[in-house]
Amino acid sequence: MYARGRLAGAIMSITMLGGLGAAGLPGAASASEPARNYLVFYTDGHRATAERAAEAAGGTIQGRDDKLGYLVVRASDPEKIGADPSVVGVALDRPIGKTADAPAASGARRVEHVRSAAKHVRSAQGGDPLSGRQWDMKMIGATPTGSYAKARGSHKVLVGVIDTGVDGKHPDIAPNFNHALSRNFVVDEPTDENGKPLDGPCEHKGCKDPADVDDDGHGTHVASTIGSPINGIGVSGVAPDVSLVNLRAGTDSGFFFLKPTMDALEYAADVGVDVVNMSFFVDPWTFNCANNASDTNRERLEQRAILEGMRRAVKYARAHGVTLVTAIGNEGLDLGKVKNDTSSPDFPKGSEKKRSVDNTCLNVPAELDGVISVSSVGPGGQKASYSDYGVEQTDIAAPGGDMFDGGTGLKGASREILAAVPENVLRAKGLVDAAGTPKTSSVIRDCHDGKCAYYQYLEGTSMAAPHVTGVAALIIGRFGKPGKGGLQMDPAQVERMLYATATPKGCPAPRTYRYGTGESQVCEGPTAKNGFFGHGLVDAARAATAVAP
What we know:
This is Serine protease. By secondary structure, the protein is an alpha/beta fold.
Protein backbone atom coordinates (compact mmCIF):
# COMPACT_ATOMS: atom_id res chain seq x y z
CA MET A 1 0.00 0.00 0.00
CA TYR A 2 1.01 3.56 -0.60
CA ALA A 3 -1.41 6.05 0.82
CA ARG A 4 -3.23 9.05 -0.53
CA GLY A 5 -4.18 11.60 2.11
CA ARG A 6 -6.01 14.76 3.06
CA LEU A 7 -5.89 16.92 6.16
CA ALA A 8 -8.59 18.64 8.09
CA GLY A 9 -8.42 22.20 9.27
CA ALA A 10 -5.64 24.65 9.98
CA ILE A 11 -3.06 24.37 12.75
CA MET A 12 -2.43 26.83 15.52
CA SER A 13 0.50 28.61 13.90
CA ILE A 14 -1.63 29.86 11.01
CA THR A 15 -3.82 32.92 11.42
CA MET A 16 -6.87 32.18 9.27
CA LEU A 17 -9.14 35.07 8.36
CA GLY A 18 -11.49 33.36 5.95
CA GLY A 19 -12.81 30.05 4.64
CA LEU A 20 -11.40 27.75 2.00
CA GLY A 21 -12.41 28.10 -1.61
CA ALA A 22 -13.60 25.33 -3.89
CA ALA A 23 -11.07 23.13 -5.61
CA GLY A 24 -10.40 23.32 -9.32
CA LEU A 25 -8.13 22.24 -12.12
CA PRO A 26 -4.77 24.02 -12.36
CA GLY A 27 -5.30 25.06 -15.95
CA ALA A 28 -5.19 28.49 -17.53
CA ALA A 29 -7.10 31.36 -15.95
CA SER A 30 -10.37 32.59 -17.46
CA ALA A 31 -12.16 35.89 -17.15
CA SER A 32 -15.09 34.22 -15.37
CA GLU A 33 -12.98 32.18 -12.99
CA PRO A 34 -14.21 32.48 -9.39
CA ALA A 35 -11.91 33.45 -6.55
CA ARG A 36 -10.29 30.57 -4.67
CA ASN A 37 -7.82 30.21 -1.84
CA TYR A 38 -4.18 29.74 -2.81
CA LEU A 39 -1.00 29.03 -0.87
CA VAL A 40 1.55 31.64 -1.96
CA PHE A 41 5.15 30.84 -1.01
CA TYR A 42 7.49 33.81 -0.86
CA THR A 43 11.27 34.11 -0.84
CA ASP A 44 13.00 34.56 2.50
CA GLY A 45 12.44 38.04 3.92
CA HIS A 46 9.96 39.11 1.24
CA ARG A 47 6.58 38.54 2.86
CA ALA A 48 5.55 42.19 2.56
CA THR A 49 6.51 42.25 -1.12
CA ALA A 50 4.48 39.09 -1.77
CA GLU A 51 1.52 40.60 0.09
CA ARG A 52 1.65 43.69 -2.13
CA ALA A 53 1.90 41.49 -5.23
CA ALA A 54 -1.14 39.49 -4.12
CA GLU A 55 -3.17 42.60 -3.47
CA ALA A 56 -2.06 44.19 -6.76
CA ALA A 57 -3.38 41.07 -8.51
CA GLY A 58 -6.77 41.59 -6.89
CA GLY A 59 -6.24 39.05 -4.14
CA THR A 60 -7.06 39.36 -0.46
CA ILE A 61 -4.87 37.98 2.32
CA GLN A 62 -6.76 35.30 4.27
CA GLY A 63 -3.95 34.13 6.52
CA ARG A 64 -0.26 33.35 6.70
CA ASP A 65 2.30 30.95 8.14
CA ASP A 66 5.48 32.78 9.06
CA LYS A 67 7.29 29.58 10.07
CA LEU A 68 7.06 28.03 6.61
CA GLY A 69 6.90 31.29 4.69
CA TYR A 70 3.59 31.36 2.86
CA LEU A 71 0.39 33.35 2.58
CA VAL A 72 -3.17 32.13 2.14
CA VAL A 73 -4.59 34.38 -0.56
CA ARG A 74 -8.07 34.46 -2.04
CA ALA A 75 -7.69 35.33 -5.70
CA SER A 76 -8.95 34.58 -9.20
CA ASP A 77 -5.61 35.08 -11.02
CA PRO A 78 -2.86 33.12 -9.26
CA GLU A 79 -0.58 33.40 -12.30
CA LYS A 80 -0.40 37.17 -11.91
CA ILE A 81 0.66 36.70 -8.28
CA GLY A 82 3.18 34.05 -9.30
CA ALA A 83 4.81 36.40 -11.82
CA ASP A 84 6.26 38.54 -9.02
CA PRO A 85 9.96 37.77 -8.27
CA SER A 86 9.19 37.51 -4.54
CA VAL A 87 6.93 34.49 -5.13
CA VAL A 88 8.40 30.97 -5.32
CA GLY A 89 5.23 29.03 -6.07
CA VAL A 90 1.44 29.15 -5.90
CA ALA A 91 -0.80 26.14 -5.20
CA LEU A 92 -4.54 25.84 -4.91
CA ASP A 93 -5.49 25.00 -1.32
CA ARG A 94 -7.14 21.65 -2.01
CA PRO A 95 -6.72 17.93 -1.34
CA ILE A 96 -3.57 16.76 -3.11
CA GLY A 97 -2.17 13.38 -2.03
CA LYS A 98 -2.55 9.64 -2.05
CA THR A 99 -2.03 6.55 0.05
CA ALA A 100 -0.09 3.46 -0.62
CA ASP A 101 -3.07 1.22 -0.08
CA ALA A 102 -2.14 -1.22 -2.76
CA PRO A 103 1.19 -1.71 -4.44
CA ALA A 104 1.27 -2.02 -8.18
CA ALA A 105 3.74 -3.70 -10.46
CA SER A 106 1.93 -2.12 -13.37
CA GLY A 107 -0.87 0.23 -12.44
CA ALA A 108 -2.91 0.06 -9.25
CA ARG A 109 -3.27 -3.39 -7.78
CA ARG A 110 -5.45 -3.93 -4.74
CA VAL A 111 -5.19 -7.49 -3.50
CA GLU A 112 -8.06 -9.31 -1.83
CA HIS A 113 -7.75 -12.95 -0.73
CA VAL A 114 -10.65 -15.29 -0.09
CA ARG A 115 -10.44 -18.00 2.57
CA SER A 116 -11.92 -18.65 5.99
CA ALA A 117 -10.56 -17.00 9.11
CA ALA A 118 -7.75 -19.12 10.54
CA LYS A 119 -7.20 -20.27 14.11
CA HIS A 120 -4.73 -18.55 16.40
CA VAL A 121 -1.08 -19.30 15.72
CA ARG A 122 1.06 -18.65 18.79
CA SER A 123 4.77 -18.04 18.48
CA ALA A 124 6.94 -20.89 19.68
CA GLN A 125 8.86 -18.23 21.59
CA GLY A 126 5.80 -16.69 23.21
CA GLY A 127 4.46 -13.25 22.41
CA ASP A 128 0.96 -12.21 21.42
CA PRO A 129 -1.59 -14.67 19.97
CA LEU A 130 -0.90 -13.76 16.33
CA SER A 131 2.87 -13.31 16.69
CA GLY A 132 3.44 -16.57 14.82
CA ARG A 133 2.03 -14.91 11.71
CA GLN A 134 4.41 -11.97 11.92
CA TRP A 135 7.27 -13.17 9.71
CA ASP A 136 8.18 -9.51 9.30
CA MET A 137 9.02 -9.13 12.99
CA LYS A 138 11.14 -12.28 12.92
CA MET A 139 13.00 -10.96 9.87
CA ILE A 140 14.12 -7.81 11.70
CA GLY A 141 14.66 -9.42 15.09
CA ALA A 142 11.63 -7.91 16.84
CA THR A 143 10.90 -11.00 18.94
CA PRO A 144 10.85 -12.02 22.63
CA THR A 145 14.44 -13.27 22.35
CA GLY A 146 15.49 -10.37 20.12
CA SER A 147 14.80 -6.67 20.54
CA TYR A 148 11.85 -7.17 22.94
CA ALA A 149 14.28 -8.57 25.50
CA LYS A 150 16.47 -5.46 25.31
CA ALA A 151 14.43 -2.47 24.11
CA ARG A 152 10.72 -1.92 23.60
CA GLY A 153 10.69 1.86 23.32
CA SER A 154 9.24 4.22 25.90
CA HIS A 155 5.98 6.11 26.39
CA LYS A 156 8.19 9.20 26.44
CA VAL A 157 8.91 8.57 22.76
CA LEU A 158 6.21 10.22 20.65
CA VAL A 159 5.65 8.57 17.28
CA GLY A 160 3.53 10.58 14.86
CA VAL A 161 1.51 8.75 12.21
CA ILE A 162 0.76 11.14 9.33
CA ASP A 163 -1.87 9.14 7.51
CA THR A 164 -5.62 8.57 7.06
CA GLY A 165 -6.16 8.47 10.82
CA VAL A 166 -5.62 5.99 13.64
CA ASP A 167 -8.36 4.00 15.37
CA GLY A 168 -7.53 5.01 18.93
CA LYS A 169 -10.17 2.64 20.31
CA HIS A 170 -8.77 -0.51 18.70
CA PRO A 171 -7.83 -2.92 21.54
CA ASP A 172 -4.33 -3.32 20.11
CA ILE A 173 -3.80 0.45 19.68
CA ALA A 174 -5.62 2.00 22.65
CA PRO A 175 -3.02 1.24 25.38
CA ASN A 176 -0.40 3.26 23.49
CA PHE A 177 -2.65 5.89 21.90
CA ASN A 178 -1.98 9.51 22.93
CA HIS A 179 -5.38 11.21 22.81
CA ALA A 180 -4.11 14.50 24.20
CA LEU A 181 -1.69 15.20 21.36
CA SER A 182 -3.55 13.55 18.46
CA ARG A 183 -5.04 15.88 15.86
CA ASN A 184 -7.10 15.67 12.68
CA PHE A 185 -6.07 18.26 10.08
CA VAL A 186 -8.69 17.36 7.43
CA VAL A 187 -12.39 17.75 6.82
CA ASP A 188 -14.37 15.04 5.03
CA GLU A 189 -15.63 16.03 1.59
CA PRO A 190 -18.65 13.92 0.53
CA THR A 191 -18.18 14.75 -3.18
CA ASP A 192 -15.52 16.33 -5.36
CA GLU A 193 -15.96 19.55 -7.30
CA ASN A 194 -17.60 17.63 -10.14
CA GLY A 195 -20.20 16.10 -7.82
CA LYS A 196 -18.63 12.63 -7.88
CA PRO A 197 -18.44 10.63 -4.61
CA LEU A 198 -15.21 11.32 -2.73
CA ASP A 199 -15.19 10.67 1.03
CA GLY A 200 -18.77 9.55 1.46
CA PRO A 201 -21.30 10.91 3.95
CA CYS A 202 -20.28 13.06 6.92
CA GLU A 203 -20.51 11.17 10.20
CA HIS A 204 -19.64 14.03 12.54
CA LYS A 205 -20.47 17.71 13.00
CA GLY A 206 -18.71 19.90 10.50
CA CYS A 207 -17.63 16.79 8.56
CA LYS A 208 -14.59 16.54 10.81
CA ASP A 209 -13.86 13.16 12.37
CA PRO A 210 -12.52 12.95 15.94
CA ALA A 211 -8.78 12.45 16.25
CA ASP A 212 -9.18 8.76 17.15
CA VAL A 213 -11.07 7.72 14.01
CA ASP A 214 -9.82 6.02 10.84
CA ASP A 215 -12.41 5.38 8.12
CA ASP A 216 -9.83 4.03 5.66
CA GLY A 217 -7.77 1.60 7.75
CA HIS A 218 -4.39 2.48 6.26
CA GLY A 219 -3.20 4.63 9.15
CA THR A 220 -4.30 2.13 11.79
CA HIS A 221 -2.37 -0.66 10.05
CA VAL A 222 0.74 1.53 9.97
CA ALA A 223 0.37 2.52 13.63
CA SER A 224 -0.06 -1.11 14.66
CA THR A 225 3.17 -2.19 12.98
CA ILE A 226 5.00 0.60 14.77
CA GLY A 227 3.60 0.26 18.25
CA SER A 228 0.94 -2.36 19.01
CA PRO A 229 1.61 -3.33 22.64
CA ILE A 230 2.54 -6.79 23.90
CA ASN A 231 -0.73 -7.30 25.76
CA GLY A 232 -2.03 -10.79 25.02
CA ILE A 233 -4.13 -9.53 22.11
CA GLY A 234 -3.46 -9.93 18.40
CA VAL A 235 -0.05 -8.73 17.19
CA SER A 236 2.97 -6.91 18.59
CA GLY A 237 4.61 -3.82 17.08
CA VAL A 238 8.28 -3.08 16.54
CA ALA A 239 8.30 -0.68 19.50
CA PRO A 240 5.47 -1.95 21.75
CA ASP A 241 5.96 0.60 24.54
CA VAL A 242 5.91 3.91 22.60
CA SER A 243 3.20 6.57 22.45
CA LEU A 244 1.29 6.75 19.17
CA VAL A 245 0.14 10.19 18.03
CA ASN A 246 -2.43 10.44 15.24
CA LEU A 247 -1.53 13.33 12.91
CA ARG A 248 -4.24 12.84 10.35
CA ALA A 249 -3.50 14.53 7.04
CA GLY A 250 -5.25 12.02 4.76
CA THR A 251 -8.84 11.90 3.61
CA ASP A 252 -11.18 8.92 3.77
CA SER A 253 -10.67 8.64 0.02
CA GLY A 254 -6.90 8.60 0.51
CA PHE A 255 -5.88 12.05 -0.77
CA PHE A 256 -3.44 14.37 1.03
CA PHE A 257 -3.65 18.17 0.83
CA LEU A 258 -0.39 20.07 0.65
CA LYS A 259 -1.48 22.37 3.48
CA PRO A 260 -2.69 19.65 5.88
CA THR A 261 0.51 17.69 5.32
CA MET A 262 2.58 20.77 6.12
CA ASP A 263 0.33 21.48 9.11
CA ALA A 264 0.90 17.96 10.45
CA LEU A 265 4.68 18.27 10.12
CA GLU A 266 4.73 21.71 11.72
CA TYR A 267 2.53 20.56 14.59
CA ALA A 268 4.73 17.50 15.14
CA ALA A 269 7.75 19.78 15.44
CA ASP A 270 6.03 22.19 17.81
CA VAL A 271 4.76 19.59 20.31
CA GLY A 272 7.92 17.48 20.48
CA VAL A 273 7.08 14.44 18.36
CA ASP A 274 10.26 12.38 17.94
CA VAL A 275 9.67 10.50 14.69
CA VAL A 276 6.92 10.53 12.07
CA ASN A 277 5.85 7.93 9.53
CA MET A 278 4.73 9.18 6.11
CA SER A 279 3.36 6.33 3.99
CA PHE A 280 1.96 8.58 1.25
CA PHE A 281 2.90 11.00 -1.47
CA VAL A 282 1.59 14.50 -1.95
CA ASP A 283 -0.67 14.81 -4.97
CA PRO A 284 -1.90 15.68 -7.50
CA TRP A 285 1.52 15.17 -9.09
CA THR A 286 3.30 11.83 -8.83
CA PHE A 287 6.42 13.70 -9.95
CA ASN A 288 6.73 17.41 -9.23
CA CYS A 289 8.57 19.32 -11.95
CA ALA A 290 9.56 22.95 -11.48
CA ASN A 291 9.98 23.68 -15.19
CA ASN A 292 8.31 21.09 -17.36
CA ALA A 293 7.68 22.37 -20.88
CA SER A 294 4.55 20.24 -21.27
CA ASP A 295 2.87 21.83 -18.22
CA THR A 296 0.92 25.06 -18.17
CA ASN A 297 2.30 28.01 -16.25
CA ARG A 298 -0.24 27.44 -13.50
CA GLU A 299 0.72 23.77 -13.24
CA ARG A 300 4.37 24.72 -12.94
CA LEU A 301 3.53 27.23 -10.20
CA GLU A 302 1.63 24.54 -8.32
CA GLN A 303 4.44 21.99 -8.52
CA ARG A 304 6.98 24.58 -7.41
CA ALA A 305 4.76 25.34 -4.42
CA ILE A 306 4.54 21.65 -3.48
CA LEU A 307 8.31 21.24 -3.75
CA GLU A 308 9.07 24.39 -1.79
CA GLY A 309 6.34 23.93 0.81
CA MET A 310 7.29 20.35 1.60
CA ARG A 311 11.01 21.18 1.67
CA ARG A 312 10.32 23.90 4.20
CA ALA A 313 8.04 21.70 6.31
CA VAL A 314 10.60 18.87 6.31
CA LYS A 315 13.43 21.26 7.20
CA TYR A 316 11.38 22.82 10.02
CA ALA A 317 10.43 19.44 11.48
CA ARG A 318 13.96 18.06 11.28
CA ALA A 319 15.38 21.22 12.88
CA HIS A 320 13.03 20.64 15.81
CA GLY A 321 14.14 17.06 16.40
CA VAL A 322 11.70 15.10 14.25
CA THR A 323 13.13 12.07 12.44
CA LEU A 324 11.26 11.65 9.15
CA VAL A 325 10.52 8.25 7.60
CA THR A 326 8.62 7.69 4.35
CA ALA A 327 7.55 4.92 2.00
CA ILE A 328 9.35 5.07 -1.35
CA GLY A 329 6.37 4.12 -3.55
CA ASN A 330 4.71 1.17 -5.24
CA GLU A 331 5.10 1.50 -9.00
CA GLY A 332 8.20 -0.69 -9.41
CA LEU A 333 10.11 2.29 -10.83
CA ASP A 334 13.76 3.29 -10.71
CA LEU A 335 13.07 6.79 -9.47
CA GLY A 336 16.36 8.05 -10.87
CA LYS A 337 15.44 7.03 -14.42
CA VAL A 338 11.77 7.87 -14.82
CA LYS A 339 10.96 9.28 -18.25
CA ASN A 340 7.17 9.37 -18.40
CA ASP A 341 4.35 10.27 -16.05
CA THR A 342 0.83 9.24 -17.05
CA SER A 343 -0.84 9.45 -13.62
CA SER A 344 -0.69 13.19 -12.94
CA PRO A 345 -2.54 15.28 -12.00
CA ASP A 346 -4.71 12.66 -10.30
CA PHE A 347 -7.25 14.99 -8.70
CA PRO A 348 -10.00 15.43 -9.58
CA LYS A 349 -10.40 12.06 -11.27
CA GLY A 350 -9.93 12.19 -15.01
CA SER A 351 -7.38 15.01 -14.99
CA GLU A 352 -4.42 12.78 -15.82
CA LYS A 353 -2.28 13.46 -18.88
CA LYS A 354 0.84 11.95 -20.45
CA ARG A 355 4.00 13.99 -20.08
CA SER A 356 7.75 13.52 -20.23
CA VAL A 357 9.70 13.88 -16.98
CA ASP A 358 13.33 13.59 -15.90
CA ASN A 359 15.35 13.17 -12.71
CA THR A 360 14.74 16.80 -11.71
CA CYS A 361 11.08 15.90 -11.18
CA LEU A 362 10.60 14.60 -7.65
CA ASN A 363 8.22 12.28 -5.85
CA VAL A 364 7.37 14.06 -2.58
CA PRO A 365 8.25 13.41 0.23
CA ALA A 366 10.27 10.31 -0.76
CA GLU A 367 12.90 12.24 -2.73
CA LEU A 368 13.36 15.18 -0.37
CA ASP A 369 16.58 15.77 1.55
CA GLY A 370 16.32 14.90 5.24
CA VAL A 371 13.76 12.12 4.71
CA ILE A 372 14.56 8.42 5.19
CA SER A 373 13.06 6.60 2.21
CA VAL A 374 12.16 2.92 2.66
CA SER A 375 11.95 0.18 0.03
CA SER A 376 10.06 -3.06 0.59
CA VAL A 377 11.12 -6.72 0.73
CA GLY A 378 8.99 -9.86 0.75
CA PRO A 379 9.23 -12.82 3.15
CA GLY A 380 12.10 -14.33 1.11
CA GLY A 381 14.16 -11.17 1.56
CA GLN A 382 14.19 -10.04 -2.07
CA LYS A 383 12.99 -6.59 -3.09
CA ALA A 384 9.24 -6.64 -3.58
CA SER A 385 8.26 -6.45 -7.24
CA TYR A 386 6.08 -3.37 -6.70
CA SER A 387 8.63 -1.39 -4.66
CA ASP A 388 10.18 1.69 -6.24
CA TYR A 389 13.95 1.90 -5.96
CA GLY A 390 17.02 3.89 -7.02
CA VAL A 391 20.62 4.43 -5.94
CA GLU A 392 19.93 8.05 -4.97
CA GLN A 393 16.48 7.43 -3.53
CA THR A 394 16.58 4.21 -1.46
CA ASP A 395 17.96 4.71 2.05
CA ILE A 396 17.00 1.47 3.81
CA ALA A 397 14.82 -1.60 3.30
CA ALA A 398 12.19 -3.29 5.48
CA PRO A 399 9.60 -6.06 5.20
CA GLY A 400 6.50 -4.89 3.35
CA GLY A 401 5.15 -8.16 1.96
CA ASP A 402 4.96 -9.52 -1.57
CA MET A 403 2.35 -11.90 -2.95
CA PHE A 404 4.80 -12.99 -5.66
CA ASP A 405 7.56 -13.94 -3.21
CA GLY A 406 7.40 -17.73 -3.14
CA GLY A 407 9.76 -20.38 -1.80
CA THR A 408 9.26 -19.45 1.87
CA GLY A 409 6.54 -21.92 2.77
CA LEU A 410 4.09 -19.05 3.15
CA LYS A 411 1.05 -18.94 0.92
CA GLY A 412 -1.43 -16.32 -0.20
CA ALA A 413 -2.18 -13.53 2.22
CA SER A 414 0.37 -14.80 4.75
CA ARG A 415 3.12 -13.37 2.53
CA GLU A 416 1.85 -9.91 3.44
CA ILE A 417 2.04 -7.86 6.65
CA LEU A 418 -0.52 -8.52 9.39
CA ALA A 419 -1.54 -5.56 11.55
CA ALA A 420 -4.58 -4.00 13.21
CA VAL A 421 -7.57 -2.73 11.23
CA PRO A 422 -10.73 -0.89 12.41
CA GLU A 423 -13.84 -3.06 12.50
CA ASN A 424 -15.93 -0.27 10.95
CA VAL A 425 -13.69 -0.29 7.87
CA LEU A 426 -14.08 -4.05 7.41
CA ARG A 427 -17.85 -3.78 7.74
CA ALA A 428 -18.03 -0.91 5.28
CA LYS A 429 -16.03 -2.94 2.75
CA GLY A 430 -18.03 -6.11 3.31
CA LEU A 431 -15.00 -8.07 4.53
CA VAL A 432 -16.85 -9.44 7.58
CA ASP A 433 -20.41 -10.71 7.83
CA ALA A 434 -23.16 -9.43 10.10
CA ALA A 435 -21.89 -11.64 12.93
CA GLY A 436 -18.37 -10.28 12.52
CA THR A 437 -16.90 -13.40 10.94
CA PRO A 438 -14.18 -12.63 8.37
CA LYS A 439 -15.18 -13.38 4.80
CA THR A 440 -11.69 -13.19 3.25
CA SER A 441 -8.24 -14.55 3.99
CA SER A 442 -6.93 -11.02 4.35
CA VAL A 443 -8.77 -10.60 7.67
CA ILE A 444 -8.14 -12.32 11.01
CA ARG A 445 -10.34 -11.97 14.10
CA ASP A 446 -8.76 -12.46 17.53
CA CYS A 447 -11.12 -12.75 20.53
CA HIS A 448 -10.33 -12.82 24.27
CA ASP A 449 -12.54 -12.36 27.33
CA GLY A 450 -15.57 -11.52 25.21
CA LYS A 451 -13.76 -8.85 23.17
CA CYS A 452 -12.71 -9.24 19.55
CA ALA A 453 -10.15 -7.30 17.54
CA TYR A 454 -9.48 -7.40 13.82
CA TYR A 455 -6.28 -7.61 11.78
CA GLN A 456 -5.63 -7.46 8.06
CA TYR A 457 -2.91 -8.63 5.72
CA LEU A 458 -1.67 -5.85 3.43
CA GLU A 459 1.45 -5.32 1.35
CA GLY A 460 3.31 -2.26 0.13
CA THR A 461 6.05 0.18 0.94
CA SER A 462 3.45 1.72 3.27
CA MET A 463 3.82 -1.45 5.32
CA ALA A 464 7.63 -1.38 5.11
CA ALA A 465 8.16 2.19 6.34
CA PRO A 466 6.60 1.70 9.81
CA HIS A 467 9.14 -1.03 10.59
CA VAL A 468 11.88 1.57 10.15
CA THR A 469 9.87 4.13 12.13
CA GLY A 470 9.55 1.60 14.95
CA VAL A 471 13.30 0.92 15.03
CA ALA A 472 13.97 4.66 15.03
CA ALA A 473 11.68 4.88 18.07
CA LEU A 474 13.71 2.15 19.80
CA ILE A 475 16.91 4.10 19.18
CA ILE A 476 15.38 7.32 20.54
CA GLY A 477 14.06 5.42 23.56
CA ARG A 478 17.58 4.20 24.33
CA PHE A 479 19.62 7.31 23.61
CA GLY A 480 17.23 10.27 23.62
CA LYS A 481 17.71 13.03 26.19
CA PRO A 482 14.94 14.72 28.19
CA GLY A 483 13.31 17.39 26.08
CA LYS A 484 10.07 18.74 24.69
CA GLY A 485 7.43 16.04 24.56
CA GLY A 486 9.51 13.66 26.68
CA LEU A 487 12.69 12.64 24.88
CA GLN A 488 14.64 14.21 22.05
CA MET A 489 17.44 13.05 19.78
CA ASP A 490 19.13 14.65 16.80
CA PRO A 491 17.55 13.15 13.65
CA ALA A 492 21.01 12.95 12.06
CA GLN A 493 22.15 10.68 14.90
CA VAL A 494 19.04 8.52 14.61
CA GLU A 495 19.61 8.19 10.89
CA ARG A 496 23.25 7.20 11.32
CA MET A 497 22.31 4.53 13.85
CA LEU A 498 19.57 3.15 11.61
CA TYR A 499 22.07 2.68 8.81
CA ALA A 500 24.89 1.44 11.05
CA THR A 501 22.69 -1.25 12.61
CA ALA A 502 21.01 -2.33 9.37
CA THR A 503 22.00 -5.73 7.96
CA PRO A 504 23.97 -5.08 4.75
CA LYS A 505 22.28 -6.57 1.70
CA GLY A 506 23.90 -6.55 -1.73
CA CYS A 507 22.29 -6.57 -5.14
CA PRO A 508 21.03 -9.92 -6.44
CA ALA A 509 23.15 -11.84 -8.94
CA PRO A 510 22.58 -11.21 -11.73
CA ARG A 511 21.79 -7.56 -11.02
CA THR A 512 18.99 -7.55 -13.57
CA TYR A 513 16.25 -9.28 -11.67
CA ARG A 514 13.16 -10.65 -13.40
CA TYR A 515 10.13 -10.84 -11.16
CA GLY A 516 7.24 -13.26 -11.35
CA THR A 517 5.25 -10.45 -12.92
CA GLY A 518 7.57 -10.53 -15.94
CA GLU A 519 9.16 -7.17 -15.10
CA SER A 520 12.91 -6.66 -15.17
CA GLN A 521 14.49 -4.30 -12.65
CA VAL A 522 18.18 -3.47 -12.36
CA CYS A 523 19.94 -3.07 -9.01
CA GLU A 524 22.89 -0.67 -9.01
CA GLY A 525 25.46 0.16 -6.35
CA PRO A 526 27.63 -1.75 -3.85
CA THR A 527 26.50 -3.75 -0.83
CA ALA A 528 27.10 -0.72 1.40
CA LYS A 529 24.50 1.37 -0.50
CA ASN A 530 22.50 0.17 -3.47
CA GLY A 531 19.29 0.94 -5.28
CA PHE A 532 17.26 -2.02 -3.99
CA PHE A 533 18.13 -2.05 -0.28
CA GLY A 534 19.93 1.22 0.44
CA HIS A 535 22.12 0.78 3.52
CA GLY A 536 20.58 -2.64 4.17
CA LEU A 537 17.65 -4.31 5.92
CA VAL A 538 16.53 -2.54 9.09
CA ASP A 539 17.43 -4.57 12.19
CA ALA A 540 15.59 -4.08 15.49
CA ALA A 541 17.72 -6.59 17.38
CA ARG A 542 20.98 -4.87 16.45
CA ALA A 543 19.51 -1.43 17.19
CA ALA A 544 18.43 -2.68 20.62
CA THR A 545 21.98 -3.62 21.57
CA ALA A 546 24.12 -1.09 19.69
CA VAL A 547 26.47 1.10 21.68
CA ALA A 548 25.73 4.78 22.18
CA PRO A 549 26.40 7.01 19.14
